[in-house]
């Protein structure tokens, strides 16, 4: 079986230099902003492997998060 990586939308809540604190359903993590020049607090970004790789609008982020939650509900994973 192969491990799968997902790119997940999250909201930027703080920025310090080129590192952001992001919020994903109440879980906060640090992520690199090295790949985005124009990220701002309040932006939604796609995060993959510890890097914010793309900005998206809030509506698109909410739709993606809803879909991810629905998919998680269909699995037997804890």
Report on the architecture of this protein:
The chain is an alpha+beta fold and 78 residues long. Strands 3-2-1-4-5 form a five-stranded antiparallel sheet, with helices on one face. The chain is elongated and about 40 Å long. The protein has one domain: SH3 type barrels, CATH 2.30.30. It has one helix at 58-73; strands at residues 8-16, 19-24, 27-32, 44-48, 51-56. The mean pLDDT is 88. The two termini are 18 Å apart.
Compose a concise summary of this entry.
The protein is of the alpha+beta class and 78 residues long. It is built from 1 helix and 5 strands; from the N terminus they run βββββα. Helix content is 21%, strand content 41%.
For the structure shown, list the relevant keywords:
single chain, 78 residues, alpha+beta, 5-stranded antiparallel sheet, 1 helix, 5 strands, 21% helix, 41% strand
Stretches where pLDDT falls below 50 for ≥5 residues? none
Distance between the termini: 18 Å
Order of helices and strands: EEEEEH
Question: Strand fraction band?
Answer: 35-45%
CATH domain fold name = SH3 type barrels
How is the biggest beta sheet arranged? 5 strands, antiparallel
The number of helices is 1
């Amino acid at each position: 079986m192969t491990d799968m990586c997902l790119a997940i939308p999250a909201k930027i809540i703080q920025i310090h230099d080129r590192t952001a604190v992001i919020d994903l359903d109440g879980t906060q993590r640090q992520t690199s902003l090295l790949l985005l020049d124009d990220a701002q607090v309040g932006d939604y970004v796609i995060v993959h492997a510890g890097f914010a790789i793309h900005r998206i609008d809030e509506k698109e982020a909410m739709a993606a998060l809803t879909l991810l939650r629905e998919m998680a509900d269909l699995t037997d994973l804890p």
